[in-house]
Amino acid sequence: MLDLNSIKKAQKRLDGVIHYTSFSYAPILSELSGYEVYLKKENLQRTGAFKLRGAFNKIATLLENNRKGGVVAASAGNHAQGVAFSAKHFGIEATIVMPESTPLNKIQGVKELGANVILYGANYDEAYGYAIDYAKDRGKEFVHPFTDDEVMSGQGTVALEMLEVEPDLDAIIVPVGGGGLISGMGVATHALNPNVKIIGVASAGAPAMKESFDSKDAHGTKSVRTIADGIAVRDASPITLKHILKEVDSLELVCEDEIASAILFLLEKQKLLVEGAGAVGVAGLLHNKIDMPKGSKIGVVLSGGNIDVTMLSLIIEKGLVKSSRKMKLSVVMIDKPGSLMIFTELLKEVGANIVHIGYDRTSVKLEFGDAVVSVSLETKGEEHQNEVRAILKKNGFEFSEVQ
To answer: pTM here?
Structure first.
């Protein structure tokens, strides 16, 4: 049963195992949003995400009931590491079924924690189906990432820690995928202070829980596509939806660009590396998705920090372009000695730094005697970019901008 008592029992089991992650005031985000904002930094948790709490609590209760035959889970990320860590801690066998497309670094991370890894299926749902059958055939316990009372009780300990530090919060913003975290946190919060608003934020690319919340009936979506892979859940669970309908005041959606901008904001302004799922709450604040009176005291859960470095570099690159700190040009010029030098001297004149340059004279799209230069520039904002455009036009250079 999921209640305050089960969550407090989970807190005792987790004592000395998990990090008591910081919950602290965020001045820059507070100024930008108009709220008094505090960040719960579960991205700094052991294994890099809150998922360890639920996985550890579930496995601990299995062992308390003398069920020591090993565990099975399906996950491509944070839940996998939480289960693997917990199984290693208790000295039992863990098998994680991961989709065949899972990045190598995540596979290696789970293996380093001592778990067996089986790659199966094109996506999570196929891996999940195989894992259920695998556990049943071998008499092992399946550890679900969210539709389990002991897992949700473990996740609810996040709220206990937040309210211990700041008991007079007006609202708590929680990322929503399968709904285990917000279910546990909602039950814990309202048992301690029923006046605190619980606000969920999900990705628009994985809207099943939002649509189910609005219709009050659990259903799925045909597909999921989001950079917030930690909350990329295709089908809403009736089990977690029941808790969400009771405990959650509102559930909002943020789009991919909003999530990416929040990741970049947290990296630059808060010096925090946060994955897409962990950044959705901040995205909601930055893009005015939260309906609370200005000045409200709001806690935001940064649920995880396990972002793929390739995705991070892409987010940074696109963020620099969108914020006018990087400019990509394709410039046509006469293919003769000195043309490129004239071009680069003009850039030097306006103080634009070249970070990449390419020269092509063979494209079939070019007139004979022409060349095209592709160049990436570091710039200092929109005004500086206008200076670059103006000086190139003034000197007769034909160019286009690449987004």
So the answer is: 0.90
